[in-house]
Amino acid sequence: MLLRDNIYAAIRADILACVLRPGAEVREQELAQRYAVSRQPVREALLRLERERLVTVHARQGYQINAISVADARDLLRMRLALEPACAAEAAAGAPASVLASLDAFRAVADGADFIAENRAFHIALAEASGNRRMAATVRDLVEQADRLVRVSLGRVPLAVSPREVLARAIGHRSRAGGDRED
User: Fold this and answer.
1) Cα gap 36→13, rounded to integer Å
2) DSSP 8-state symbol, 25
3) DSSP per residue over 46-72, as a string?
């Protein structure tokens, strides 16, 4: 693997694990020092991460790790709801018995196990069991990005905006937009 790919993978992993927290401002030089590389592979990685909507570029100011919005969470979950049942159906229909048995091992989670890691491993294994490489790759990406949402929802990372504030804004926006419904 090339250096730029390794740096991209390392920064992405730190974003998804919330080591680089949602809303944090980062600079190329700081990240270059952190990962012991020059600024060039860091810059390339950050531009790739911008395309994935994990960071925002602020010209001449640096980068910001994107916060997790309600819309992001909804979009991620809807995509997973569309793809994961298809993966499960394909796995049930065509995966070898040994692969299905390995999925069955995920039923028991050991005491003290990292729930997020176990959850990620199960969903990725299920997607890979489908035998559809493209669908599995997409599910892997969605699951990895959803890890940030899980970490935030479990309270392991402080939110930039409280959930009550997000809900209040959404309700207020709907009322102002004339979205009131009569039931």
Assistant:
1) 16
2) E
3) HHHHHHTTSEEEETTTEEEEPP--HHH
Q: Which of 7-21, 43-57, 161-175 has the lowest mean pLDDT?
A: 161-175
Q: The tokens of 148 are what? A: 């940030």
Which residue in this structure is represented by tokens 């669908």?
135
**Residue bearing tokens 């994961």:** 84
pLDDT (tens digit per residue) in 76-90? 999 999 999 999 999
User: Over 80: is that where the pLDDT of 161 sits?
Assistant: no
Identify which of 23, 110, 117, 112 has the alpha carbon closest to the alpha carbon of residue 63. Answer: 23
- Report yes or no: 87 and 130 within 8 Å, Cβ to Cβ: yes
For residue 65, list its beta bridge partners.
Answer: 55
Q: What is the mean pLDDT of residues 10-39?
A: 94
- Are residues 147 and 17 in contact, defined by beta-carbon separation less than 8 angstroms? yes
C-alpha to C-alpha distance for 91 and 127, rounded to whole angstroms: 8
The one-letter amino acid at 110:
A
Residues 6+ apart with CB under 8 A from 54: 12, 15, 16, 65, 66, 145
CA distances from 162 to 24, 79, 149, 155 (A): 16, 25, 14, 11
Residue with structure tokens 């600024």?
39
Of 53, 75, 76, which is closest to residue 66 (Cα–Cα)?
A: 53
